[in-house]
Amino acid sequence: MEISLCMIVRDEEASLPRCLESVKGAVDEIIIVDTGSKDRTKEIARRFTENVYDYQWQDDFADARNVSLSYATKPFILWLDADDVMDRSEREKLIALKSRLDDRVDVVMMPYSTGAGLVFERERIVRRAAGFVFMGVVHEAMEVSGNVIYEDIVVRHERGNKKPGGRRNLEIYEKWQARGRRMSPRDQYYYARELMDCGELGRAEQAFAVFLMEDGWIENRIDAYVQRGICLQKLNRPLEAKQSILSALALSAPRAEALCAMGNLAMSAQEWENAVFWFRAAMIARPPENTGAFVFLDAYRYIPAIQLCVCYDHLGNTRLASQMNEQALLAHPGDPAALQNRAYFEHKLTQQAERLSQ
Is 244:229 a contact under the CB 8 Å cutoff? Predict the structure, then answer.
């Protein structure tokens, strides 16, 4: 089956060539909708496709995405951002998948690796005739149904030197609120995350609380309880933080993200044995599969190991602290903090051995 690639872009002259080159030969049509570029983005896009269209920006990512979908002519649609890329091995998997796609498949879920260890599933390919559309003015997504398949074809977010969006997304939400728009539970959840990312912890905590009073998606609820707990901890409200994070743990099999948050609370209170319990639990937790949840991979290995290293050192168990530090290095070879710890523990263990031999 043939695939249309649909993209919305703006001022992406640095990223767009890399993205389009990475899917060359794997897609059969490229649709580029430009939302107001002032650089050479459209010129570059025309090197790859004649299907380049202008769109007047409406402070609504979903609307722009849906316009891009409307130009597609192939049976299946793949969507990407300009700073996304598919490694050669993943492109080959996509080419192989095309021979298996037919009208019985409605949606293909694929892992999205956003950097910093965060991975989650996205509805990356959809059957055009199914009529799925994006929703959400920011952090837009499709509500999909039917025959959904999962493929291990990773799309990787490659920001490079591109600056973060700053307050752009938060300002879009606030414009919509000023216009009297009632935000959906999903919008409320992402609004809270944007407030948190912008450092507005008090407002973020309140926005998460509003979301949690609504009937939102369970994966968003789990994360909202954890993120609200982190906000409350930073606001010096540890008891409320603990209650929020424990609520996340009550909703599903324990997630390492929540377990590490509990461990961090215990560390802040210098409750070292308590912290050991939570970080040990995080190390044996397993990431959820095929749920669409945000999965912070470091929470399942590196973070609990490096934090256990600190806890055991405070408890006077240098050997265990050193072992946990080595576990952290296995997760992140060459990690500067862990390498510094290694030298510290080697010196400390040598001193202990010398004292025992005297």
Answer: yes
**What residues does 123 pair with on adjacent strands?**
109
> What is the predicted pLDDT for the residue at 37?
98
Do 201 and 208 contact (CB within 8 A), yes or no? no
State phi, psi for 109 to the nearest 5 degrees: -90, 135
Query: Exposure of 261 by Cβ count < 10 A (0-12 exposed, 13-18 middle, 19+ buried)?
Result: buried
Least confident of 133-142, 165-174, 214-223, 243-252: 165-174
Residues 6+ apart with CB under 8 A from 17: 44, 47
Which position has the token pair 């969006």?
165
CA angle 129, 216, 131 (to 5 degrees): 5
Bridge partners for 29 per DSSP: 4
15-65 confidence digits (pLDDT tens)? 999 999 999 999 999 999 999 999 999 999 999 999 999 999 999 999 999
> Is the CB of residue 329 less than 8 Å from the CB of residue 309?
no
